Hints:
Layout: E1 14-20, E2 26-32, E3 38-43, H1 54-60, E4 65-71, H2 86-99, E5 107-112, H3 114-125, E6 130-136, E7 141-142, E8 159-160, H4 163-170, H5 174-177, E9 182-184, E10 187-189, H6 194-204, E11 206-207, H7 209-212, E12 219-224, H8 232-241, E13 245-250, H9 256-259, H10 261-274
Parallel strand pairs: 3-4, 3-5, 5-6, 6-12, 12-13
Antiparallel strand pairs: 1-2, 2-4, 7-11, 8-10, 9-10
Amino acid sequence: MPTGPDAAAAPAHSVRTHLTTPDGRRLSYLDFGPVEGRPLLALHGHLGEGADFVGLAAALCPHGWRVVAPDQRGHGDSERARRYDRDGYVDDLRVLLDHAGLGRRAVAVLGHSLGAVNGYHLAADRPDAVSALVNIDGPAYLPVVDPAPLSFLLDLPYTAATREELLAACGPLAAFLEGGVRPCRDGWRLGCHPEDMVDSDTRLLGDHWAQWLGTDCPALLLHGTASSVLPTAQAREMARRRPGTTLVELDADHWVHLRRPEESADVIRRFLDTCP
């Protein structure tokens, strides 16, 4: 996945915490900033992890925000799951909020791509629990295609004896995936299992308009005008049809917050500062 700002250049104190879900899986998350800070739940996209938001947390925490950034199921240090549908992802978020002591507070929810869709599904399911939405290039509709867009991942190995061997087997995708590889019992592994990502991607396709329009809390839609996932015409329609939604367009691809980190962080901070 594209990497964000160097943590050494943009330090943000964090604590990595693990919890056990009701079905016995480990769910891992990074907790940035003061416990008493205003809570922001930050959700990465496919092939990402909570560490994608190190730079954003560094920009927000000095302004009084606490950023809770999970590795969503099957990503990063969180264990694989049997289900990758919306109910499964949202169930994990409910457990996480309770574990982090936020189950009785309204939180701002930020998400990129998959994380954005999961975030506004959480808001539609629990409107009293979400005070604001930041949607980073997450569509309300994705065309149903077969095979799913991430099916090219099935050609990749999940593990290899060494990091170098694993990245060599990834070929041209190595630069995209190297930030997520980590040691495992059998040597080194990718940050996500290819089969899980294709399953998750397949279940994400389709119509999510009802959930996107299902809440009226303030929302920011941050869109990359060169995105191959969210067409600009759809982004503008999403902002037009949902009251209280601010659309900001930046010259970037789908990973707008990682390609344009300073501008994105500034837009997000200014939006959040206006929210109750």
